[in-house]
Amino acid sequence: MKQLYWHGLSALLLGAGFGSPAWAQTQDAKAPYSLGSAQTLVRQLEAQTAVAELQRATPSVTLRVSATQVFTGKVNYRQDLSATGEYVVGEIQNAVGSSFLLRIEGEKVQGHIILRKTREAYEYSADARGNVLVQPVDINKVICIDYNKPVGYESPTLKTDNTAGRAAVVSLQSYPGARGCIMLDFDGQYVAGTPWNNGNPISAAPAGMTDAAIQEFWELVSEDFRPFSMNVTTDEAVFNSYPKTMRMRCIITPTNTAAPGAGGVAYLKSFNWNDDTPCWVFMTSPKAGGEAASHEVGHTLGLSHDGRLSPKEEYYDARTSAGNWAPIMGAGYYKPVTHWSRGEYASASQTQDDLAIMASATYNVGYRNDDHANGLSGATSLARNGTSVSGSGIIERTGDQDYFVFSTGGGTVNLSLNTVGRHGNLDIVGRLFNSGGGLVGTFDTQGSLSTSLSANLGAGTYYLQIDGTSYGNPVGEGYSDYASLGTFSISGTIPAPAAGGVATVYRDCNYTGAAVDLPVGDYTLAALQSRGILNEDISSLTVNSGYQVVLYENDSFSGGALTLTASNSCLVGNALGTGNWNDKATSVRVQPAASSFSVLLQAEAASVNSGMTAETTTDAGGGQNMGYVDAGDYLVWNGINFPTSGTYTIEYRVASPSGGTISSDLNAGAILFGNSAVPATGGWQTWTTVSRTVNVNAGTYNFGIYAQSGGWNINWVRISKAGNAARVAALAQASASVAPQLEIYPNPVTDQLQIRSERSLAGSEYQILDAWGKPVASGSAATGRLNVSGLQPGIYTLRLVVEGQVQPTKRFVK
């Protein structure tokens, strides 16, 4: 009877659940076909697979794609995703080279049907009402198909024992701590429960590559993804520290079960699938394999193929072009320079904006933070040792321009402006400006990514701009500066400025004792000693107007720092841990002073809780209080101008008896500044000021603050730059001074995170932020034990307030 019941239910599902309504008979063959609600479909799939389980047979499911067309799918892998979800993978019966995937979690639907032989594909989705839709799509919008190896490529002999050559792979990382992660997996991998091989397992052999070949392969892929907050690694532990929705494994192996005969293969948009479906590369040479790896990972981040309309081809390889360039999402095997593209070459079949798609909120990775100012103000001083200078950086975006400053006593300046030594993307142009911003010269070696600068300059201060540039005609054999992005380095010689620089340091207070003049430049301990300045020997100094001196406690510009924009007759009274900066400096930077900027933001009390735009004021006295702010309230000030790129301080003057958390952002959350803990002040008018230091590109933004927790009075918000440098440095050194007092363990952690502190934890509070700065847990830390068992795997930041003082943040891995 039970068996008969299940057969009857299956028939009922075929007739009712996947019926053919009259309206569907006349609908467009390419229009989406409705399959009902997600939960109805879950029940149907579960019922059909249950029939096979009762009969101890291979499960099969009915896959209707239109009113008149139905496929039968053989299920090779199934996972029950609780009562509201189902995950099935398999192949279409009687269809060679076919596969299907259907994953339903609550109202989220993902899946496809692929018929490789006939080059057909169908894709599942859900509409705004939660109904499941299926419709035919271009197969190239689902999977990378027929991406062949380069002409003449010889595949290595496949080893039958996939443990052979499974040696430890050199551990490499391109950007530790980045938001997203790409793992290049060279040591073999067992893959099961994914859409590859129709859900059946794949035991992939190691790549069998030398460390030198792996290094070159990794360098190529790393440079392609250098503009993004993406860590390209070969380390399994690093990969596993990222959430599944923020990582992609690319397996490099001669085992081509996933796509026999191809150079590589990937599912489009699979980077954030949350199931660790990998992409594949079946070539083990650094150039061919590296190009394929970037191509396939690009697919997982939403990119389609770059081909041509005439002659019609799916992959543009530019072999008929006289230039040296090809698009990564075409076939970049044959050209030394490959870039992400927006289809600027002749007869392009694809004009999507590769960079914007990969950096979009869809994948939550985004670009790296800008590392140097985009203008003369805030330019980075070239490091100097005698006449030798150096600098480095990354051009992260098409419009990015990095500025450096140097001074010379006059004579010939010789600089090399280089990108990476092999497989570079950045085509460099250097521009030289005088102290007034006038262009002295442009330096670009056409046909070479790197360039050089040689100029006979008079004594003075100059600025060097590094920018990405184009080559030739993008419609023909060349490329624009669209994706001319990546790493650069600066090295060379600049005559030292004449004695009597812009700053003078003295051995004793009151400008007495041995004196040494310092021109603009960066001075390590060795550079100071070469000028006769001993370690920890500076007691007073003079600074010319328009310049600043930054003193560092340790060598190589590390440790506590003090910025001085005016002369100081005795450094005894400047706080540093034990109370003074006298005889503390070990390295020094002399640089043009950044232009100061400060704006005070206030609001009428009536505007606070309504979300209305508040007004800007220059009333330094604080003016009228904004009033009481509830948890969840959000204040916005429109049109706040950040005049130059660089470091700004956001200060909040608040009062709160019980404490809380305040955060801020730009353009409604497009740029997040993270959270600041508001200490418990014990009274509504007992004011305290908390702050955050952030990097912002020049521009006009809508600035908002948000009450994450607690309730507090707010008096004013101030945004400032430059003149606060000493204060920012003092905050940094204060944090550094208490760092040894706090320890968390174990790390990585499974369930219980322990806190060890030299201070009492009684009354202390904690907050845990995820990788994007969003609070995911908070509460009392008094016991010294935090239960983190409910957190998803990933990287987190712990914040603590102990005895009313904010402690340095600690990161841990779950």
Automatic annotation (TrEMBL):
The record's annotation in PROSITE patterns points to: CBM6 (PS51175), CRYSTALLIN_BETA_GAMMA (PS50915)
Signal sequence span is 1-24
Q: What CDD domains does its record include?
A: CBM6_cellulase-like (cd04080)
Q: Which SUPFAM superfamilies does the UniProt record give?
A: Collagen-binding domain, Galactose-binding domain-like, gamma-Crystallin-like, Metalloproteases ('zincins'), catalytic domain
- Domain of life of the native organism: Bacteria
The Beta/gamma crystallin 'Greek key' domain covers 501-545, 547-592
Domain CBM6: from-to ranges: 599-720
Alphabetized UniProt keyword annotations:
Repeat, Signal
Q: Which family does it belong to?
A: Belongs to the beta/gamma-crystallin family.
Q: What is the name listed in the Swiss-Prot or TrEMBL entry for this protein?
A: Carbohydrate-binding protein
Q: Which organism is it from?
A: Hymenobacter nitidus
Q: What is the lineage of its organism?
A: Bacteria, Pseudomonadati, Bacteroidota, Cytophagia, Cytophagales
